[in-house]
Amino acid sequence: MSRPPERGFTLLELLLVLVIAATGYVLVARLASGGVSGAELKSAARAVAAGLRDARGTAIARQEATALTLDLEKRAFEVEGGRSRALPARLELKLYTAQSEIVDDRRGAIRFYPDGSSTGGRVTVAAGERRLLVDVDWLTGRVSIREGG
Predict the structure, then answer these.
(1) Confidence (pTM)
(2) CA distance linking residue 97 with residue 119, whole number of Å
């Protein structure tokens, strides 16, 4: 007497389905984030904050006003007299600063003074729906990073 064939899936079939599902998940997550990982977003925000803190420290040490200039089109920034630092090209950048610090429609600056104060402002670093805000307090020149809404 012969046995009826067993029903079910083989281990190979189950592994193949898991690989396809994982690949689909990775692709959807990558497309939803605009191709920029959370780590890249945080790294870019920290780099901008470090540049702003550097400009503040330079202004205090040299006892002369020092600005960080941000180029929104090239996605780069530069502290006066220093080298330019590039950010990932897939990021969106926005700058909110004093009218007197706007160079043109794609460049602007945040300026720090010898007493540590600044013109104040905000740099928004975004990738899709995720955004980090790099704020500069005008009175104290304090630089902080927070999640954006």
Answers:
(1) 0.76
(2) 7
**What's the angle, vertex CA 20, arms to CA 18 and CA 22, rounded to 5?**
65
Domain residues of the chain, as ranges? 38-147
- pLDDT tens profile 132-149: 999 999 999 999 999 986
CB-CB contact of 71 with 107 (8 Å): yes
Q: What is the separation of C-alpha 70 from the centre of its chain, rounded to a whole number of angstroms?
A: 13
Alpha-helical runs (H) found in the chain: 11-32, 38-62
Q: CA–CA separation, 126 vs 38, rounded Å?
A: 10
Angle at 108 between CA 72 and CA 36, to 5 degrees: 25
DSSP secondary structure, 110-129, as one string: EEE-TTS-B--EEEEEEETT
Question: Checking DSSP bridges between strand 121-127 and strand 92-97, what pairing results, if any?
Answer: antiparallel
**Interval 40-91: pLDDT, tens:** 999 999 999 999 999 999 999 999 999 999 999 999 999 998 889 999 999 9
Domain 38-147 falls in which CATH fold? minor pseudopilin epsh fold (3.55.40)
